[in-house]
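Incident log entry.

Two folding requests arrived from the same account within the same minute. Monitoring flagged them as a possible duplicate submission, but the sequences differ. Recording both here for audit purposes.

Request one:
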Amino acid sequence: MNKEEKPVDIGEALTGLKVVPLPEGWTGLEAIVLVKCLDDKGHPSWSFRVTDGLNEEELLGALTVRTDMLRRDLLDSYE
């Protein structure tokens, strides 16, 4: 994020996109968001965003765990 960019609510930044809500009673604290989008020329691209409260160790840990889980699920689907 550069100095001119100001954070906005996730729902405002990703208007029209939907996700499954958190379980009842849970409270979201931080987020990692990977968005497939079309760039200003209409080409598919990816955009990555994180909320301010995640440090680099938490970010790496969360992404590593999710990658390992996805890899396991994909391997299980081939068996």
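Request two (distinct sequence, not a duplicate):
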Amino acid sequence: MSPKSIGGGARQERKPLTLETEAQQVLNELWREKLIPFQLNVGRLTKEEASGNFTIHFHDSRIYSAGVTITQGQKWAEMVRAAVLARVTRISGPLRQIPWLAVESGVCVLPHRPRSNAWPTLTP
């Protein structure tokens, strides 16, 4: 039995990845490499007709989108990677800090509640 006859004999051609799928793969790699502070998911991809550049819209409230500038000679994945890393560096302010929650050595610590009824109560 020859190797060609194993698995049906005919080679299946792989369909090329869509731009959205390839962008999501790049986002997953950045998350795995810990280069972005939270996981991102591609919502949709839009192309600007005038410039030919793309905008990746995310399913996330912290970063809504990232602009991908098309550069001749560069791969799509490289351009997405550069655009997302540049966009993440422009995040302003802390990432959703909860004022009463402290983090010590990577562990969330809740505040200590005194045994007395020292907590303020709300009255109408």
